[in-house]
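Figure 2 data, in text form.
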Amino acid sequence: MRLTDLPLRQPAFVDLIDWTSLSAIDAQRLREFGLCEGASVEALHHGGLLGRGPIACRVGRMTIAMRRAHAAAVTVRTGPETLGSEPAA
């Protein structure tokens, strides 16, 4: 599912990022904020009218605001951090 579709306060992991849909500057900015495949992410708030503005999200331990178009380039999963991993005991 896309980060834009992730329910609020639902922890997830970044599965894939479509870097080609982002400008080089925007991609570099997101990398500097720690957004990469495998990073933990959580949508906290949808801004703007009717929730169609920027998205406040937690990436690791940092809270960032991300344009909706950038969040649409991020595919997330709500399962384990690595596919096929066993839950911690």
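Caption note: Strands lie at 12-17, 40-46, 55-59, 62-66, 74-77.
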